[in-house]
Request: fold
Amino acid sequence: MVGFRTLLASLIVFVSTFSGYGQTAAQTDVDCDQQLSHAESEFSAGHFYSIPSILKECLTSSRLSKEQLVRAYLVLCQSYLILDDPNAAGDNYLKLLRADPEYVPNEKDDPIDIVYLSKQYTATPIFTPHFRIGLNASFFRSIYSISTEPYGISSQNPLRLGFQLGGGMDWNINDNISVCIEADFSSRGYQRILTSGVNTDETNIQASQLWLDVPIYAKYSFSLTDKIRPFGYVGVAGNYLLSASNQFTYTDNKSTGSQLVSEGPSESVTSQRNKLNRSWLVGAGIRYKMGKNFVFVDFRYMAGLSNLANESKIYYQDPSTIDPQQIGNPNNYLSANVTRYHYISDLFRMDNLSMSFGFVKPLYNPRKVKHARTKSVARSIRKEEGKAK
Amino acid sequence: MKYIVISISVAFFLTGCDSSVSIEDPNKSYFVKFYGTGGDQTGQDFVVLPDGNMILFGTTRLTVPTKGTQWYLVKIDPKGNVFWEKEFGGLNNEEARDIELTSSNQIVLVGNSYKSPTDRDVMIMTLTTDGVKIDSAVLPVRDSFGAPTAGDEDAAGVTETNDGFLIAGSTTATTVYSKPVIAGQADTHDALKIRVFTDLTIYPSSWTQTYGYYADDASLKIYQVSPSLFHVFGYTNSPPPGQSVVNYNFWVFPLGANGDATADQIYPGTSSGDEKLSSACISPVGYFLGGLSQNSASSSDIFISEIRTPGSLGFKPGPVTAVPPGDIFYEKTLSVNLGNGLPERSSVFPSGQGGFYVLANENGFDSNQNWVLTRVYKDGSLAWSTPIVFGGEGLDNCGSIQELPDGRLVLIGTMRTGRPDAGEFKLTVVKVSGAGKFE
Reply:
């Protein structure tokens, strides 16, 4: 019985403790909201000196919402500006930007002195990392057609999809312009169907390549709405070919209607390729704001500038595959592709169209700007003062 | 920032975009082309026309033949593109052997036509460079009465003379030319030296059409030195003077005005192996000869010899440096392990860099037969440390080689394409640099 009383007492204490805690927390929020309203009414009443002390406890309690913080720091900024303490006003504006890095005062609704102050500070990230993943399709651009067929050939180039993933960093020059560098890994491919000009013999090549791309580009972006920020960019890229392989099928279509098909496993043609490529690129997309971060969709066209076929190697087998017992120079063995599949690589460039989805994590950095653009605001202030007079 | 952008832009635009403006068309300099639209085509020989175009000579056999194997003639431009291709022949099978460009800018073809599976006659044809036939003739070896024999002829080469053509080769009609019987030996073939006029009518019977020992003899090429002197290049297994062992050696002898051979003959070769000549060309000092050397214990090797044009009617045996001097500058194998069981085929051509190119076949690895190309200096030593092999996974047969005026090489032959075990044979032309490379 004693035990039951003790247990009941403990339960009451426990429940009352937690309900009390809840009441205390709710009480604190209510208090801070009241304190914030009190500070704003004090500001309206012209009692500026008391405002910092009214808000001090709430600001240190860290229980204010982002909107409450903005309101609190705005009141403080205005108060200090009126009290002719621009340093304190600036400090509080920096704190406001830390609470809401995307905060931009509205010239129509917000006090002109706050707008003026805002021009001296920014939270624009200096660096903005992003990550991307998506799909791509490549376009084969023949420079010279090279073929074992002396009668000419016709070619079809059906699209093959690849994928890419990577990340990059934007160096933000200002709110609109940035310079970006990326490191992307991509799988690309193309297909070619080559048909002899005098019969229907056909060579089918399905090419697969792995690339490391390092694009550098200048980007322009702007805010369409609070959430949506379109962007466009142009730049150049260095591309390194990690590997290249081809899957071949040669179909000898006989006059009797029968077919003799020659095919084999995918073969490395890396030795027949130039590994370094240069490209120019152009792209555009839209960023969508989610909290302090963004997701984006990006469409990019990267046009290859370099001939990817190594002219001095396209006829030759990879020397490492030549048995040392074979006579002859291992560097000059005719590639088996030439006879087995009637295939010699064109000299070609390769363009790439990609669609990527990504995530942007802005590294906000509230700071005072070195060269504040306050002239237009100053003109507005003077205009308002003129009207007042 | 702007300096970075400017620097990058300048770097990229300086290097520019690789295009047909900045890159020379490689098809002008080197290529591999397969000729023939269906069935099997072989490549044997070709000529380069004064305008740089080429006419290729080989055979073709359709997938479903309505005739026998036909002669196959293709005219191509220097990039390998086809102007036209034509077939010549009858219901029986034809074999292609040699094509030459005449001094009157016509084409002469020579090969064999099968009368029966064991009886071939020589077939010769003249054409314009547009492939229009002028004359043709089928030439069996005739006996001393002018009657056709039943011998099996195998033409090897044709040469323009001052009034027509001379055809080299071999025949089984060994009784046409009478010779003493040698016990224990077989008189299987005599060398051909069939002479025809420009209109392909046969020369009077005073010109004997065959010559040989009681042995296996063949001529491969005949050059006219003067209206009354011809040099014949072939092989024989008749033991040379001073030897008693029957084995094959190169065989070089002169013919007089009536086609009779003189006794001053030379036999470049070794006493231990069989050397069969399969190609000859004119060299700065005389003639350069190429062929295969083979003995029962080892694989085939390339055998070469350069001989001096004799001042007199006949050739003198022995090296040039000996006293009294002979006409053989050198004779040697090249220590290239070609393999075994190879066809007796090679082609030689003088190099503008000095020395000679030698094209042959090899199957030294995995029994896969390919073409093999090497170059020798004028002293016969190897100019390339390793030869260059051309071919695929199927059976490939070399035809001939020529150096173009710009120093590039054109090789013709046959390669099996498509599936290595069942693909079609194609007349194949390879154009490479003077180093034998696609560059």
User: Anything to note?
Assistant: The two ends of chain A are 84 Å apart (CA to CA).
